[in-house]
Write a structure and sequence with these properties.
- The structure holds 2 protein chains of 2 kinds.
- Chain A contains 13 helices and no strands.
- Chain A is mainly alpha-helical.
- Chain A folds into 2 domains: about 30 residues; about 230 residues, MetI-like fold (Orthogonal Bundle).
- In chain A, α3 packs across α10, α5 runs parallel beside α11 and α8 runs antiparallel to α9.
- Chain A starts with a helix and ends with a helix.
- By secondary structure, chain B is α/β, with parallel strands linked by helices.
- In chain B, α2 crosses α3, α2 packs parallel to α4 and α3 crosses α4.
- In chain B, about 45% of the residues are buried.
- In chain B, the strands form 2 sheets. In chain B, strands 6-7-8-3-9-10 form a 6-stranded mixed sheet, sandwiched between helices. In chain B, strands 2-1-4-5 form a 4-stranded antiparallel sheet, with helices on one face.
- Chain B has 2 domains: about 160 residues, P-loop containing nucleotide triphosphate hydrolases (Rossmann fold, 3-Layer(aba) Sandwich); about 70 residues, no CATH class.
- The C terminus of chain B is likely disordered.
- At the A-B interface, α8 and α9 of A face β6 and α2 of B.
Chain lengths: ~260, ~240
């Protein structure tokens, strides 16, 4: 029975690995010449630049907003906390197109928020700011989850000791809690950034696809593929997959040393 | 003078502390002796402000501090598992409270060096806690508590996880430190030898109440006369 169970586990693992490898093979099996041709013909450099800029800004914004939110959720109890947690997690479960439509309705010129933004001369629809907003909306829960878990993992005696050493909460946060949550902050930032980089539905709804302005890599893959230009779509997919792959390796290498130090 | 007046603490339908009253004189090293589950650590947490009592008052220097947050009380604590900040060096751990109070850098450096000498760890200033032994960690925790310049230091079974010879050495060091710079202390333990070695006064707690307060030398008499809580002080049989 045990042997059969282990065999079943092994077969399922092998099948999954095979599926992922076969699917990714087609993305990575692009000849350098074809990649170069598609890169130049379709101005993929500018698409890549838009994607990198906006996803980095979205991840940075998630870090600035998400860190205090994660701290409050990890360390404080208050009425309605569960409801708030569910609300903040909702963008993860929400279909991206629904998230995009919700944002579009929120910032459209006819809405109260859109009116305020128009008065302040801020335009979000069909702009890079709109991409950042859409990516932030979809990716910030990933950051909050990672940092919240890291803060929750700190033994309660640590902040208690800090309070009994006359440190106020802000001092303790910056000198103890945040440094001890470093791993969660970094992995949360990277997860959030890669999620933002791959965001398609919400981005397309809010920012559309203005070549050179709001065209991100996932949007480029979709538009090129639906237009029948599979070479360009493949080149854009290769870029996106390569970035994700390298990020994953970098994260694993960075935290391998850390976990080895911890286990020593 | 520190007074706990009629402290009660209830968790759901279970009353853990049932009207504890206790007074600690300034500079006195008091022991809170009792078996596991008697409410010793909970009482320390209430005194430190980490827990709120269900009823009763905490008076420190005549002021009602029952609702004051931990950082506003003249109280610090040495935890059972030392609770040193793992991201900071030994020097930074000891300097933590002084830096939080924005004391001048020169004052901080001189005080930390003084305390490092006091705990016999002057060569470990730049070491992180993860390279220290259990005994060294507790010495740093004691130095860190002394650096806080608190009126009262609470000790929550700080040496309970250490082996006997190391514990005896640390108890003697702690006694010397207290002699050199008398601070008011409340030391929680379930070990009668520790209570005898350290205490100026021993308060025995059992079943959520202070059952007896006496000088440490009369502990044997107490053991003979109060069979309930003290019988529970010896470790339970394994089988």
């Amino acid at each position: 029975m045990t042997k059969a169970f282990i065999r079943l586990c092994g077969v399922l693992t092998a099948l999954l690995a095979l599926l992922v490898s076969m699917a990714l093979y087609n993305v990575f099996a692009v000849s350098p010449a074809a990649l170069k041709g598609a890169w130049e013909a379709c101005a993929l450099a500018s698409v890549l630049a838009v994607s990198m800029q906006t996803s980095f800004c979205a991840a940075l914004l998630s870090m600035i907003v998400g860190t205090p939110v994660a701290y409050v959720l990890a360390r404080r109890g208050f009425p309605g906390k569960t409801a708030l947690e569910t609300l903040l997690d909702l963008p993860v479960a929400l279909p991206p197109m629904v998230a995009g439509l919700a944002l579009l309705l929120l910032v459209s010129p006819n809405s109260p928020v859109g009116c305020l933004l128009a008065k302040a001369d801020i335009s979000l629809i069909f702009t890079k700011s709109g991409i950042i907003l859409a990516q932030f909306f979809v990716a910030v829960p990933f950051y909050i989850r990672a940092v919240r878990s890291a803060i929750t993992a700190i033994p309660p005696s640590i902040p208690a000791a800090a309070a009994l050493l006359r440190a106020n909460e802000a001092y303790t946060f910056f000198h103890v809690i945040l440094p001890l949550s470093r791993e969660g902050v970094i992995s949360g930032f990277v997860m959030c950034w890669t999620r933002a980089l791959g965001e398609f539905g919400a981005t397309a709804m809010v920012a559309g696809c203005v070549p050179g302005v709001t065209e991100t890599l996932p949007v480029a893959i979709y538009t090129r593929a639906t237009a029948g230009d599979l070479a360009s779509a493949g080149a854009a997919a290769f870029c996106l997959a390569l970035i994700s792959f390298l990020t994953l390796i970098a994260l694993r290498v960075a935290f391998k040393g850390e976990s080895q130090r911890r286990n020593a | 003078m520190i007074s706990l007046e009629n402290i009660c603490k209830r968790f759901d339908d279970r009353m853990v502390l049932k009207g504890v009253s206790l007074s600690l004189a300034r500079g006195e090293f008091s022991i809170l002796l009792g078996p596991s589950g008697a409410g010793k650590t909970l009482l320390l947490a209430i005194l430190a402000g980490l827990e709120k009592p269900s009823s009763g008052r905490v008076l420190i220097g005549g002021c009602d501090m029952t609702s004051a947050p931990p950082e506003n009380r003249p109280v610090t604590m040495v935890f059972q598992r030392h609770a040193l900040f793992p991201n900071l060096t030994v020097f930074e751990n000891i300097a933590f409270s002084m830096r939080a109070r924005r004391l001048p850098h020169r004052v901080v450096r001189s005080r930390v060096n003084e305390l490092l000498a006091l705990i016999n760890l002057p060569d470990y200033a730049h070491a992180k806690p993860d390279v220290l032994s259990g005994g060294q960690c507790q010495r740093v925790a004691v130095a860190r508590a002394l650096a806080a310049d608190a009126e009262i230091i609470l000790f929550d079974e700080p040496f309970s996880s250490l082996d006997r010879p190391l514990k005896a050495g640390l108890l003697s060091e702690l006694k010397n430190i207290h002699r050199a710079a008398p601070f008011t202390a409340l030391y929680v333990t379930h070990d009668m030898d520790e209570a005898r070695a350290l205490g100026d006064r021993v308060h025995m707690i059992g079943n959520g109440r202070i059952t007896r307060s006496s000088a440490p030398h009369s502990l044997h008499d107490a053991a003979a006369s109060v069979s309930g809580p003290l019988s529970a002080l010896s470790p339970p049989p394994l089988f």
